[in-house]
Amino acid sequence: MKYILYALLFLSSSKIIAQEFTVSGTLLDEQSQIIPYANILILNESGVLVTGKTTAEDGSFIFTNVEANNYTLSVSFMGFETFTKEFELSSNKSFGSIVLKENLETLDEVNLVSAKPTLNKESDRLIFNVANTALSEGSLLEVLRNTPGVLILNNAITVKNTVPTVYINDKKVNLSATEITQLLENSPANTIKKVEVITNPPAKYDAESGAVLNIVMTRNLITGYRGNVYGNYTQGVFPRYNAGINQFYKTNKINVNLNYSFTQSKINRENDNSVNYLDHSGSLDEKWETNNNRNTTSKTHNVNLNFDYFLDDSNTLSFSANGLIVPFFDYNIHGQTLIFDNTNTPIYNFNSLNQSNDDKHNLGFNLDFVHRFKNHGKLTFNAHYTDYNYKRDQNVNSEYFFSSSVDNFNTSFNTVSHQATNIKTSQIDYILPGNDGSEFAIGVKSSNINTDSDITQFDNDTVTGNTILNAENSNIYDYEESIFAAYTSYDKTWGKLNFRGGLRLENTNIDGLSVSNNVESMQNYLELFPTLNLMYSLKDNLSLYTNYNRSISRPSYQLLNPFNFFLNDNTVVTGNPNLLPSFTNHYIIGSQIGSRYTVEAYYKDISNQINEIPRQDNINNLLIYSPTNIGNTIEFGFDFITYFNIKDNWSVYFVTSLYNVQDEAFIDNQHVKIDQWSNYTMLNNNFSFLKDRSLNANFTLTYVGKNQQGFQKVDSRLVSDLTFSKSVFKNKGTLSLAFADLFNSQDFGVVSKFGNQNNRNYTNLDNRYVKLGFNYKFGNTTLKTNERTKELKERSRLEK
User: Fold this and answer.
1) What are phi and psi of 405, to 5 degrees?
2) Per the count of CB atoms within 10 A, which of 121, 296, 390, 400 is most buried?
3) Rg of the chain on CA atoms, in Å
4) Across residues 118-128, what is the average pLDDT?
């Protein structure tokens, strides 16, 4: 009996010895500011590493399942003295707030060696780490060009056939697609840490965020002043340039960052368009061949201001403002059109000249308050206001020529359009980390958007010179939208299983009024948007995961505007106030093998897909670009991602995706169903040269196979980029040289051939160029700035 008692006592004591606890804390500097991404190590009594990690964005860390024993906690971060503390773990251990002291002598001697980019795959995102690499010496746009899975073509950023929502430090960049590209191209990347390609965004992101690109910048840590000036000269068909200055100043109580850039550019674009207009039987009636040459000239000012005031150890008040001011944006389209009959015999031709003068500004203002609780929880409040104003003055003149010069005639008209948009939003979020490593979050957001638009067209009598109001193509459109959203999310790990899920609710009210015909369009809908991520580790080097999320795509305010905007007498761009939102269900299942290989399969079901596709009016011989809900789109595919080092100075990233897109709808009372298999492949090479690795090169090839976009077939393209960068002036300056479209293979054709549609457009882009750049840092170059661009989802719908 006593042996049984001894055995029970032994088993009981073994259980006590093997008991596991948590170790947690928060890292701060001497000004009580959080320190993210610091190294936290737990060492045993022999000094051997037991486990380690880096602090989170809020400076916190937590270790779970640590066995009872005696340990040493070691905390280190560049520019600070290493913190060590011995402790005995017999229950859950919280170090509270750990304050690191600055090591100024070490900082003055820091000489960073350029590192290699690294790639990490999590269940819902791909993380591209580029801090202190050659890529961080260019622009933010250049970093995105080299991010696996991201494609930038014709000023459009896409991720797996989806236009992503761009965030900087989890704050939405709410500009149009063109404006976002311009902002990123003019923003230096020397404070960037990583890019997160989030294919299954958590519930805290707006439901419109079907895919997210989150650019994470490093945080400010040390007092003092720093700055940098930069400039780029680009030679394409025409020369263009941009220059800017970025200044940052920090004390114990305030952070101030001011960034200004100016861009002047002239961009060329050539389009060849062919339209086969059909008769009632579907046979060829007339064939129109058009060549359009467009030159766009612009001058743009970008301003970004950030101000942080640290009220005390727990409270921070911030103000930020960013502005995009375009006082000069002109484009000239010279068009030549030839018309043939069904026997290919010329009938007549006409030349058109479209001249447009635009003026716009996009100003955003944010007020933020952050409170940190002693339990490591965080409460944030944001108020945002956008003022957007856009004006356009357009003149279109056409000359018609016939076999008999007696029949020749001219047409001329002028349009004046204006759009003013105001956006007001407010948002509150609360995040509570648990002692067991879990995290609970909850938040609410409200937004209100008002848009007033008007367009007036005047027809000019080329004989008498009289001007006549065209009431049919003149209109006023008033639009109001309000959205209320609430969400909750939870993140928890149980041993080998990680759960990350949430639920977002959004209620939308829309009221639009077309004044000229007194037509009112109203929508009111309440929708739920769940998100789910599950990841299970089978072994140390093998894990399985599955994701699901539901998202919404609302039409931009410009697409809802019902105005007719003529590019020439026979080509018109018009909006659609009856557009409905599009909904996407996205499923993913994948496996991560080791730390370098990822295999993934995905499936998307998109209802009410919104596409702006050219539709030909065969009766009136018009080509109409109008957005419409085309029906249903199904996309599924298989992805493979890897990276490896060929040599110590040569690393390679490889991504390939094989996918199918199927569009199905009823168009012109006909059932149309089209699908297309395609391939996306990216090969990214990073090289470093010289003993100090101060000379770096990047060579990227991206192949986009023939693919389908809204019943249109898009030709295959090969994107090629070669970039060199050299550190100079004791690493304070960087010279860069970039070559784009090395093989002149990025131009493409688009074919629409279904039902009674038969047209093709070939686009020759001004994307083959040489770019020379220079960046110089001054002041305390070890400083990290508080530079960021804060925006909201609603602003991205100003233009699309």
Assistant:
1) -65, -15
2) 121
3) 29
4) 75
Length reported for the chain: 800
780 DSSP β-pair partners: none
Is 125 in contact with 199 (CB distance < 8 Å)? yes
Angle, alpha carbons 430-433-435 (nearest 5°)? 155
Q: What is the mean pLDDT of residues 595-623?
A: 89
In the block, residue with structure tokens 């919404």: 552
**Alpha carbon distance 177, 199 (integer Å):** 19
The rounded distance, in Å, linking the Cα atoms of 175 and 109 is 41
**Over 70: is that where the pLDDT of 222 sits?**
no
pLDDT in tens, 252-272: 788 898 889 899 999 999 999
pLDDT at position 301: 92
Answer yes or no: are the C-beta atoms of 478 and 426 closer than 8 Å: no
Going from the C-alpha of 687 to that of each of 189, 611, 651, the distances in angstroms are: 19, 41, 7
**Pair of tokens at residue 389:** 């104003």
Beta strands at 150-153 and 125-129: parallel, antiparallel or unpaired: unpaired
Question: Taking the CA of residue 610 as centre, how many other CA atoms within 13 Å lie in the half-sphere pointing to its CB?
Answer: 21
Q: What is the pTM of this model?
A: 0.79
The two three-digit tokens of residue 525, written as one number: 């809908």
Q: For residues 225 and 247, what is the distance between their CA atoms, to the nearest angstrom?
A: 8
pLDDT of residue 104: 47
Phi first, then psi, for residue 26 (nearest 5°) are -135, 140
532 token code pair: 């789910």
Which tens digits make up the pLDDT trace of 456-513? 999 998 888 889 999 988 999 999 999 999 999 999 888 889 899 999 999 999 998 8
Across 495-518, the runs of DSSP E, i.e. the strands, are 497-514
Buried b (16+ CB within 10 A) or exposed e, 432-442: ebbeebbbebb
Please name which of 290, 297, 291, 293 lies closest in space to residue 331, comparing C-alpha atoms.
Answer: 297
Q: How far is CA 35 from CA 85, 101, 205, in A?
A: 18, 12, 24
Q: In what order do the strands lie in the sheet with 564-568?
A: 564-568, 571-574, 622-629, 610-617
d(CA 619, CA 285): 10
Place of tokens 């002028």: 414
Q: Phi/psi of residue 795, each to 5°?
A: -70, -25
Cα–Cα distance, 739 to 725 (Å, whole number): 12
Chain-centre distance for alpha carbon 1: 71
Task: Specify burial of residue 535 (Cβ count, 10 A radius: 0-12, 13-18, 19+).
Answer: buried
Angle at 225 between CA 319 and CA 772, to 5 degrees: 95
Q: Among 631, 699, 638, which residue's Cα sits nearest to residue 671?
A: 631
Separation of alpha carbons 652 and 654, rounded Å: 7
More confident position, 72 or 375: 72
pLDDT at 725 over 80: yes
